[in-house]
């Protein structure tokens, strides 16, 4: 069963477009949208397991230059 998450991302000033472009090339990132408010970008991610999601967000997403903070919010059924 796939794990789907919203990834809330804060970027360094003036680097949002660059971050969006880089995120779209990461395997596991299925959609990237710029937003206004407390975060600058919301990415939708899908992986095969929660462990893979941890690697995707904790290692791959946070390694993108221009990202100052990333928080994964796994989707749940209510």
Overview of the structural elements:
- With 78 residues, this protein is α+β, with helices and mostly antiparallel strands.
- It has one domain (3-74): Alpha-Beta Plaits, CATH 3.30.70.
- Helix content is 26%, strand content 38%.
- The protein is built from two helices and four strands.
- A four-stranded antiparallel β-sheet has the order 2-3-1-4, with helices on one face.
- A hairpin with a 6-residue loop joins strand 2 and strand 3 (41-47).
- The longest helix is centred in the last third of the chain and has 12 residues, at 50-61.
- The mean pLDDT is 96.
Task: Offer a few descriptive terms.
78 residues; alpha+beta; 4 strands; 38% strand
In short:
The chain is of the alpha+beta class and 78 residues long. The protein has helices spanning 16-23, 50-61, and strands at 3-11, 29-34, 41-47, 67-74. Helix content is 26%, strand content 38%.
Largest sheet descriptor: 4 strands, antiparallel
The whole-number mean of residue pLDDT values reads 96
Give the CATH architecture. Answer: 2-Layer Sandwich
**Helix- and strand-based class?**
alpha+beta
Give the domain tally.
1
User: SSE order in H/E notation?
Assistant: EHEEHE
Number of strands: 4
Strand content: 35-45%
Query: Quick one: overall form?
Result: globular
CATH superfamily: Lrp/AsnC effector binding domain/regulation of amino acid metabolism (RAM) domain
Determine the fraction of residues in helical runs and give it as a percent range. 25-40%
Q: What kind of assembly state do the chains in view correspond to? A: single chain
